[in-house]
Every structure is written in structure tokens, then in C-alpha cells.
Write a structure and sequence with these properties.
By secondary structure, the chain is of the alpha+beta class. The chain has a single domain, classed as Sandwich (Immunoglobulin-like). The protein is 25% helix and 35% strand. It has four helices and 13 strands. The strands form four sheets. A four-stranded mixed beta sheet has the order 2-1-3-4, sandwiched between helices. Strands 10-7-12-13 form a four-stranded antiparallel beta sheet, with no helix packed on it. Strands 5-6-11 form a three-stranded antiparallel beta sheet, with no helix packed on it. Strand 12 and strand 13 form a beta hairpin.
Length: 248
């Protein structure tokens, strides 16, 4: 009986360690986490959130997490006198979908972490905690990216049990605006990971999906400062996989 008790205890410890190791990346490894910032150059509360996104992207201060930043500029602040050149009703609509799912928002600045957690975008502590929690959750979809002849080639695995929607964003770093009206009149703003394009690539069926899409930058968009971001989201908005690649 004593031998059986010891054996059960050993098995329980092994099970606990297995669950723990599955939930968290190995020490030193960083699991990618998508951090979306809904912001506006017309919003006086947004510059601190813009700076926080820069900090998260450049310095990666959250242990075990690789922050993948995505800045989406909404258009509902444009009425006060300053038109944000990066704003789009598309991003406003995306933020509203998050508000409906998460029962929070829309507001600026707002950060959404891995599609499941909403936080005030200038709350550095809250954002850090949300990223830490997201990095402890496994992402079942693997995304591999490569480029050739102006095309982005995607190879995705692990789709069968999730049936996610696949998104492609073209983002640009190190952008600057000298604001001349509105709440930030006279302020120079700095941005990273600004979404210059965001589009759905559809909802592939099966467990493996391979496709190629042309890479075409906007007029004036700098290739050396731009990246291609691909991520998979389920119907609830949870990010199931993510990959980022510099544009060659």
C-alpha cells in the first residue's frame, strides 16, 4: 500500500509539471503576444499610450513574451479639427467589434491583448499583467512566412480545431506627425507598428493551409521600416497564432 501511495504521488507531480510546462514557454523563450492599440492623433490621452507601445515593441520588457505591436488609428476624433492621416473607419469598426465581444469600449487609448483582454492604453502596469497572462497560454496555430518575387508565402498548420480567420497587416515603424490642431495642437507625435493596411485572407478549411499574397506598399510607405504581420483569430477574437516578417 505504501508503494502504491508513493507511485500515485509521483504520477501526480509529473502531471502537474506536464501541465505547467505546456502552459508556459521554456525559460528564456518568448511566446508572441499581439498587442493592438486603438489610438488617435486627435486624442490628448493617447500620446502616453503611443509611447508605451514604442517601449513594448523596442525594449520587450515583459518576460517570456514577444510583444507584436499593431497600432490602429480610429477616425472618430477627426471632427475636432485635426485629421489623423493614419486613421480609417475600418479600425473604428474593428474596435467596435471588440467592444461588443469584450463588453468594454470603444474608447481611446485602448489596448487589446491577444484579442481577449481590454485595458486602458496608458495603464502600463495593467498592460504588462495582461501580456504576462497571454504569454502563458499556448497558441495552437503555427504560421511560417517567406517572401519571393514580391509575394508573401504563408504556411499555416494546426487550423482544424479552430477554423480561424486569417489577417494580414502591413505595418510601418518610426512615423512622426507634427500636430497643428485639436487636443494635441503643437505636439510632435511618434508612432510604431502603424497599420497601413489590414485585410482578411479568409477562413481556410482543413488543418494545413498554404497560400501566397502580393506585397504592395502604399505610396510613400518605406520598405525598410515596414513589416508584414499575419495572425489567426477564432470567432471570439482570441489570437491563435501570429508571425511577423520584415519586407524584403
Amino acid at each position: 500500500m505504501k508503494t502504491l501511495t508513493v507511485l500515485i504521488a509521483v504520477l501526480l507531480i509529473a502531471l502537474i509539471l506536464t501541465v505547467k510546462n505546456h502552459a508556459q514557454p521554456a525559460s528564456g523563450q518568448r511566446r508572441p503576444v499581439l498587442v493592438e492599440l486603438f489610438t488617435s492623433e486627435g486624442c490628448s490621452s493617447c500620446p502616453p499610450a503611443d509611447r508605451l507601445l514604442i517601449e513594448l515593441k523596442h525594449n520587450q520588457p515583459v518576460a517570456n513574451a514577444q510583444v507584436i505591436a499593431l497600432g490602429e488609428h480610429v477616425d472618430y476624433w477627426n471632427y475636432i479639427g485635426w485629421t489623423d492621416r493614419f486613421s480609417s473607419p475600418q479600425f473604428t469598426a474593428r474596435q467596435q467589434r471588440y467592444a461588443d465581444r469584450l463588453n468594454d469600449g470603444p474608447y481611446t487609448p485602448q489596448m487589446v491583448v491577444d484579442g481577449t483582454t481590454s485595458i486602458v492604453g496608458n495603464d502600463a502596469t495593467g498592460v504588462s499583467h495582461a501580456i504576462t497572462r497571454a504569454a502563458a497560454v499556448d497558441k495552437p496555430v503555427q504560421i511560417e512566412l517567406s517572401q519571393n518575387d514580391g509575394q508573401l508565402h504563408l504556411n499555416l498548420r494546426g487550423l482544424a480545431n479552430a477554423s480561424p480567420e486569417i489577417f494580414l497587416a502591413l505595418i510601418e515603424d518610426d512615423l512622426e506627425s507634427h500636430v497643428k490642431a485639436g487636443e494635441n495642437d503643437g505636439v510632435t507625435l511618434h508612432h510604431v507598428a502603424v497599420a497601413r493596411e489590414l485585410r482578411s485572407l479568409g477562413k481556410p478549411s482543413g488543418d494545413v493551409w498554404t497560400t501566397a499574397v502580393p506585397l504592395k506598399l502604399l505610396s510613400g510607405q518605406r520598405k525598410e521600416k515596414s513589416q508584414a504581420l499575419v495572425f489567426a483569430q477564432d470567432q471570439r477574437g482570441r489570437v491563435l497564432g501570429i508571425a511577423l516578417a520584415s519586407i524584403q
